[in-house]
Design goal:
CATH class of the largest domain: Alpha Beta
Shape: globular
CATH superfamily of the largest domain: Transposase IS200-like
Order of helices and strands: EHEEHEHHHHHEHHHHHH
CATH topology of the largest domain: Alpha-Beta Plaits
Structural class: alpha+beta
Helix content: 40-55%
Number of helices: 13
CATH architecture of the largest domain: 2-Layer Sandwich
Radius of gyration: 22 Å
Number of strands: 5
Largest sheet: 5 strands, mixed
Length: 282
Amino acid sequence: MARPLRIEFPGAVYHVTSRGNARADIFVDDHDRELFLKVLGQVVWSCNWLCHAYCLMDNHYHLLIETPEGNLSAGMRQLNGVYTQAYNRTHEQDGHVFKGRFKAVLVEKENHLLELCRYIVLNPLRAGMVKRPDDHPWSSYLATLGQVDCPAFLVTSWLLGNFGTAPTEARQRYRQFVAEGIMQGASPWAQLSGQVLLGSAEFIRQTRERLGDKGVIQEIPREQRHVGRPKLTELFPPRAVLSKPERNRLILLAHGQYGYALKEIGQVLGLHYTTISKIINH
């Protein structure tokens, strides 16, 4: 199984999800949910994380985590590992609770974190579990509004600070912001790059520089190794007239540097993949 690309550095922000093994529930009852939040609080404290939002579903969870010390993987091993042990003790079973490795998307805080905070607390509505975000007690929504006690591990200052300096007004605007998300129904993942990055072109460029040798590790899925690469339609614009030498140069670039498959290049150019292979070999 290909291992996911992990981009870790101090101050990085992630949308993290982890799902149940064989799509099974990871929370059977409220005791399990309380247990998970307790473990999460311990990990946030020990790893010096900042948790901006969370939502517990039935067979998975969502977190928005900021890592001042660049230690996401270490913390996630602790979170899922400790919870798995406690869950198995509680339910008198053994084996995997979570399906493989967790999924993490590196997020540009300035441009996308606010939208993801909304996306996370609206998950129960999209799944048909509730009709209003207020009806789901296992997310950060009510705590951010000040309607329930805020868990010690949850940081709301950055989120509410985007809506004003007066707490009451900021919470009202936050509620309106979430309500507008229900009407819009747009997904933030339309702008996802290479399965692991969500941010501007400059953010993606800077992240590519951070990758270094990780960009050529073959165990990492190809889309993640070449995160931020240009689309083939950008290399070969539709209706563009290219000389044969320039076309061949771009074919070499697309395959050799950006990792596109011969068949993918051929489909864009209207050529058989064997023709692409001959051009590259020549």
